[in-house]
């Protein structure tokens, strides 16, 4: 079955992702099943998306009820779920009534909106970080540092300067009064869960504000309880960005993005400046509300911290793991050799969905409902997964 679907995929779907490893048909909690009936513990969670896991009844109910009531209307009209979601996000950020939200459908779109917003400052320059990932649309790509993603699409819009991540001096010398914004991930996700020094974001905020620039934090991956706080910047005292962008975990699998701005940044986009047909539609908004309320109701912030510590500890004790990074259920593991891709394959054989962000780097961004038993199972399986991967890598590199 899996093989059949994969063959049809190759004959019908544009080959932008490379051949899919599996055809998945069903999910429950932190588990998924492929078309051949094989079960996997899902440690990728749709890339930090399935915060509530798969088929959570609260999400299913919210989406079903909203779709039966009012599924979609144009943004010429207000809907209660969208307004309630904006209010809740602003409340969770603690930003009060001088903050505003723009809804879209993805992380890249949330960043496009933020990038357009920065243009309304009257300045055009943006400073971003090496190792950054902000999405694949042209504007978001202009902020993304990876040459392999950028070069086939040059010229990209914007005047974007890249500085080494976690380097305050570099940021200091790159930012002057012509810079509209500094854009940073609080923890770099696609780079492999790279955590900056504790004072880096506060320094970025000071530097931005010294020059009248905005601090824009891309929390598309780190936001919505992923790190054990509602937003990763809340792990740090005194960091208050002007703009944050959200997506991934926000809808729990229903596509939605959000750009939240406060203070003068909240009013930079004016009527006619930006728009979207689908963004923040009632179904997506109801889904996101269900995600936020379930995180609260099920104590998933605490659970994320606890499971996160358990995951970090079991990774750290593995032979071959040199370093474990991250916070909550966003973790990176540096291996002692370039066998991460092989570990993903041997993990799959053993019934675990793993993810490699680099030749020797694994990333773990599982559902926040992952159980202690799921982690015990990983603990038991991981030594063999890594041994097998190491051996496979040695076979292919003589
Ligand atoms: C995934 C990601 C994006 C892009 O989100 P899409 O929904 O894939 O467009 C942007 N920024 C960060 C930090 C991400 O991790």
From TrEMBL:
<keyword id="KW-0963">Cytoplasm</keyword>
<dbReference type="InterPro" id="IPR004636">
    <property type="entry name" value="AcOrn/SuccOrn_fam"/>
</dbReference>
<dbReference type="GO" id="GO:0003992">
    <property type="term" value="F:N2-acetyl-L-ornithine:2-oxoglutarate 5-aminotransferase activity"/>
</dbReference>
<feature type="binding site">
    <location>
        <position position="276"/>
    </location>
    <ligand>
        <name>N(2)-acetyl-L-ornithine</name>
    </ligand>
</feature>
<dbReference type="InterPro" id="IPR049704">
    <property type="entry name" value="Aminotrans_3_PPA_site"/>
</dbReference>
<keyword id="KW-0055">Arginine biosynthesis</keyword>
<feature type="binding site">
    <location>
        <position position="133"/>
    </location>
    <ligand>
        <name>pyridoxal 5'-phosphate</name>
    </ligand>
</feature>
<feature type="binding site">
    <location>
        <position position="277"/>
    </location>
    <ligand>
        <name>pyridoxal 5'-phosphate</name>
    </ligand>
</feature>
<dbReference type="InterPro" id="IPR005814">
    <property type="entry name" value="Aminotrans_3"/>
</dbReference>
<comment type="pathway">
    <text>Amino-acid biosynthesis; L-arginine biosynthesis; N(2)-acetyl-L-ornithine from L-glutamate: step 4/4.</text>
</comment>
<dbReference type="InterPro" id="IPR015421">
    <property type="entry name" value="PyrdxlP-dep_Trfase_major"/>
</dbReference>
<feature type="binding site">
    <location>
        <position position="136"/>
    </location>
    <ligand>
        <name>N(2)-acetyl-L-ornithine</name>
    </ligand>
</feature>
<comment type="subunit">
    <text>Homodimer.</text>
</comment>
<feature type="modified residue" description="N6-(pyridoxal phosphate)lysine">
    <location>
        <position position="248"/>
    </location>
</feature>
<feature type="binding site">
    <location>
        <begin position="218"/>
        <end position="221"/>
    </location>
    <ligand>
        <name>pyridoxal 5'-phosphate</name>
    </ligand>
</feature>
<keyword id="KW-0808">Transferase</keyword>
<keyword id="KW-0663">Pyridoxal phosphate</keyword>
<dbReference type="InterPro" id="IPR015424">
    <property type="entry name" value="PyrdxlP-dep_Trfase"/>
</dbReference>
<dbReference type="InterPro" id="IPR015422">
    <property type="entry name" value="PyrdxlP-dep_Trfase_small"/>
</dbReference>
<comment type="similarity">
    <text>Belongs to the class-III pyridoxal-phosphate-dependent aminotransferase family. ArgD subfamily.</text>
</comment>
<keyword id="KW-0032">Aminotransferase</keyword>
<protein>
    <recommendedName>
        <fullName>Acetylornithine aminotransferase</fullName>
        <ecNumber>2.6.1.11</ecNumber>
    </recommendedName>
</protein>
<dbReference type="Pfam" id="PF00202">
    <property type="entry name" value="Aminotran_3"/>
</dbReference>
<dbReference type="InterPro" id="IPR050103">
    <property type="entry name" value="Class-III_PLP-dep_AT"/>
</dbReference>
<feature type="binding site">
    <location>
        <begin position="107"/>
        <end position="108"/>
    </location>
    <ligand>
        <name>pyridoxal 5'-phosphate</name>
    </ligand>
</feature>
<keyword id="KW-0028">Amino-acid biosynthesis</keyword>
């Amino acid at each position: 079955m899996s093989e059949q679907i994969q063959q049809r995929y190759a004959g019908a779907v544009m080959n932008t992702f490379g051949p899919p490893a599996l055809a998945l048909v069903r999910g429950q909690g932190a588990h998924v099943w492929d078309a051949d009936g094989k079960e996997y513990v899902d440690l990728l969670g749709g890339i930090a998306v399935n915060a509530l896991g798969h088929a959570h009844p609260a999400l299913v109910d919210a989406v079903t009820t909203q779709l039966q009531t009012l599924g979609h209307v144009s943004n010429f009209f207000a809907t209660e779920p969208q307004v309630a979601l904006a209010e809740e996000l602003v409340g969770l950020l603690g930003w009060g009534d001088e903050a505003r939200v723009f809804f879209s459908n993805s992380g890249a779109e949330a960043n496009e909106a933020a990038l357009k917003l920065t243009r309304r400052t009257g300045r055009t320059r943006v400073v971003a970080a090496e190792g950054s990932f902000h999405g694949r649309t042209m504007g978001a790509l202009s902020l993304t540092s990876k040459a392999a993603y950028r070069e086939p699409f040059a010229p990209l819009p914007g005047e974007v300067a890249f500085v080494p991540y976690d380097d305050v001096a570099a940021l200091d010398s790159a930012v002057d009064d012509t810079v509209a914004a500094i854009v940073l991930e609080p923890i770099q996700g696609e780079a492999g869960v790279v955590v900056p020094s504790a004072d880096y974001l506060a320094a970025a905020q000071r530097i931005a504000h010294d020059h009248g620039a905005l601090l824009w934090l891309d929390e598309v991956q780190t936001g919505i309880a992923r790190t054990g706080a509602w937003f990763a910047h809340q792990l740090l005292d005194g960091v208050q960005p002007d703009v944050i962008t959200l997506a991934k975990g926000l809808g729990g699998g229903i596509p939605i993005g959000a750009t939240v701005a406060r203070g003068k940044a909240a009013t930079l986009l004016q009527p006619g400046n930006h728009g979207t047909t689908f963004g923040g539609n009632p179904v997506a908004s109801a889904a996101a509300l269900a995600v936020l309320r379930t995180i609260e109701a099920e104590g998933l912030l605490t659970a994320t911290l606890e499971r996160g510590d358990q995951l970090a500890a079991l990774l750290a004790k593995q032979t071959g793991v040199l370093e474990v990074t991250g916070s909550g259920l966003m973790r990176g593991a540096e291996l002692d050799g370039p066998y991460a891709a092989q570990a993903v394959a041997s993990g799959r054989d053993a019934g675990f969905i793993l993810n490699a962000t680099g030749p020797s780097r694994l990333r773990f961004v599982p559902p926040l409902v992952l159980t202690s038993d799921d982690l015990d199972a990983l603990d038991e399986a991981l030594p063999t997964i890594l041994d097998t991967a190491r051996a496979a890598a040695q076979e292919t590199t003589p």
